[in-house]
Specification:
By secondary structure, this protein is α/β, with parallel strands linked by helices. The longest helix has 21 residues. Helix 2 crosses helix 8 and helix 10 packs across helix 11. The relative contact order is 0.14. The strands form six sheets. A seven-stranded mixed beta sheet has the order 14-15-16-13-12-18-19, sandwiched between helices. It has a six-stranded mixed beta sheet with strand order 9-8-7-10-11-21, sandwiched between helices. The protein has a three-stranded antiparallel beta sheet with strand order 5-6-22, with no helix packed on it. About 40% of the residues lie in helices and about 20% in strands. It folds into two domains: about 280 residues, Aldehyde Dehydrogenase, Chain A, domain 1, CATH 3.40.605.10; about 190 residues, 3-Layer(aba) Sandwich (Aldehyde Dehydrogenase, Chain A, domain 2). It contains 14 helices and 22 strands. The protein binds NADP nicotinamide-adenine-dinucleotide phosphate. NADP nicotinamide-adenine-dinucleotide phosphate (NAP) binds next to helix 8 and helix 9.
Length: about 475
């Protein structure tokens, strides 16, 4: 990738806070460094907000709320539609920007832009379909009218792994519903969110509807907002540990909450599965986003009758996934996000190997600058290996065998997480029976990818509550009001 192209993309992005439709520095003038995970080099400095800046952002959101709620749904939808168009037209530059701050290969960044833009298109269509109800009182006198109204100002907190899509998945329904927002992106990947704010302004979003606060101190900066009675909703995507803390804090104001938290997805391959299809699904479910996805397959349970074939083929496919900087067109797996994540993945693999797992490919971090870990397959993974319990968030596939369906389901459900599970089988009966028994909010049936803006995305158990996308997504941003009508 020519340096001039990189320079052009980086310099085109705003670096300041976006509050009330105005770009401005942090009140105390501090900045936050953004690193390229492929080199460890600082590629940009953005404004580093404190609690005062966050309060200003909430003030702007509160001020903009009444007029925004009164804006016709069609107009709100048209803004989203234009934003969809702009995002799509600018895929190449925005994909490069995302790769520079997050690391994934540019082709994957481009796919994320497509996915992210689809949330705007979907919610442009949903904005004009906010339904209510009208019915006769069962007693025969009077009528029952049900309205859906915007919740009000929202705090949206997003992670670094899908810097663009995690933003549009919240902004899209909030805009469609008529809510104003303060968005706080992850400190590792603020640039995509700043670019998004600029693009939405160009699409016609009025000042104050979306405010963006980038910060190196998420806790101190957002705590006053959670304690402020003017804030009406928190939508959080991130780790379960942080989600639990924020849910406890949000309880004081009885905030509406949506929580999209961590996963520990089981990937089940039954004896009657099309093994080649299962391997292709496994490559997607494991190596998409370098394994840094809440939906990433974390544990592979394979029937003993096909375990050898599945593992051999998986190793061959993993061997054919070049690791390198995301800006290099030949790379299929980019770096992990930072040194901490590289250490965590290394520790989890070392722990499994020390406890008896055998490593068939990969298994050690690659040297040099940047945070690279190669695709790794482990077999004979013992039940007490930490990586069967903890989210790996890296390109590591631990394989465990099972003998019968009940055993597979028991092992799959033996976790506090419940976001997604995958299963491969050619039996319709088994597919439905097992899908119904799996304790997850989503199931990938003979496919390794479930994310779809038209479907309700979300988890159960410690993976959170609430749904993003689908017809359900907008309801997270709407309150139900019932009018008892006496005629
Ligand atoms: P994280 O550490 O929980 O951070 C997520 C967001 O929360 C970041 O913006 C972070 O800001 C912020 N944050 C951290 N501590 C905070 C606090 N005390 N108060 C307010 N905000 C705080 O998670 P991550 O490492 O970025 O993301 C990976 C996790 O997200 C994984 O567990 C993954 O499974 C989950 N995830 C879930 C979904 C889903 O839909 N279920 C989707 C994607 C990712 P800073 O960056 O400044 O710390």
């Amino acid at each position: 990738m020519p340096d001039a192209t990189i320079e052009k993309v980086l310099t085109s992005v705003p670096r300041q806070l976006f509050i009330g439709g105005v770009w401005r520095p942090a009140t105390d003038g501090r900045t936050l460094a953004v690193e390229d995970p492929a080199t460890g080099a600082v590629i940009a400095e953005v404004a580093d907000a404190n609690a005062d800046d966050a309060r200003d952002a909430l003030d702007a959101a509160v001020a903009a709320q009444p007029a925004w709620a009164a804006t016709p749904p069609r107009d709100r939808g048209e803004i989203l539609r234009r934003a969809y168009q702009l995002l799509t037209e600018r895929t190449t530059d925005l994909a490069l920007l995302m790769t520079l701050e997050m690391g994934k290969p540019v082709a994957e960044s481009a796919a994320e832009i497509t996915y992210a833009a689809e949330f705007f298109r979907w919610f442009a269509e949903e904005a004009v379909r906010i339904e209510g109800g009208f019915s006769m009182n069962p007693a025969g006198k009077g009528r029952l009218v049900v309205l859906r109204q915007p919740v009000g100002p929202c705090l949206l907190i997003t992670p670094w792994n899908f810097p663009m899509a995690m933003g549009t998945r919240k902004i899209g329904p909030a805009v469609a519903a008529g809510c104003t927002m303060v968005l706080k992106p992850a400190h590792q990947t603020p640039l995509s969110s700043l670019a998004l704010a600029e693009l939405l302004t160009e699409a016609g979003l009025p000042p104050g509807v979306l405010n963006v606060v980038t910060t190196s101190d998420a806790g101190e900066t957002t705590a006053p907002l959670l304690a402020d009675p003017r804030l009406r909703k928190l939508s959080f995507t991130g780790s379960t540990a942080v989600g639990q803390r924020l849910a406890a804090m949000a309880a004081d104001q009885l905030l509406r909450i949506s929580m999209e938290l961590g996963g520990n997805a089981p990937f089940l391959v039954f004896g009657d599965a099309d093994v080649e299809a299962a391997v292709s699904g496994a490559v997607i479910a494991k190596l998409r986003n370098g394994g840094e996805a809440c939906t990433a397959a974390n544990r592979f349970y394979v029937h003993t009758s096909v375990a050898q074939e599945f593992t051999d083929r998986l190793v061959a496919r993993f061997a054919d996934m070049p690791v390198g900087p995301g800006t290099d067109a030949t790379s299929k797996v980019g770096p992990l996000i930072d040194r901490r994540q590289l250490q965590k993945v290394s520790e989890l693999v070392d722990d499994a190997v020390e406890k008896g797992a055998r490593c068939l490919i990969g298994g050690r971090p690659l040297g040099g600058p940047g945070y690279f870990y190669p695709p790794t397959v482990l077999v004979d993974t013992p039940p007490d290996a930490r990586l069967l319990r903890e989210e790996i968030f890296g390109p590591v596939a631990p394989v465990v065998t099972f003998e019968d369906d009940a055993d597979a389901v028991d092992q799959a459900n033996d976790t506090e997480f419940g976001l997604v599970s995958y299963l491969f089988t050619s039996s319709l009966d088994r597919a439905l029976r097992v899908s119904e028994a799996l304790e997850t909010g989503m199931v990938g049936l003979n496919q390794g990818l479930v994310s779809n803006p038209a479907a309700p995305f979300g988890g159960v158990k410690h993976s959170g509550y609430g749904r993003e996308g689908g017809h359900e997504g907008i309801n997270e941003y709407l309150e139900v009001k019932y009018l008892a009508v006496n005629l």
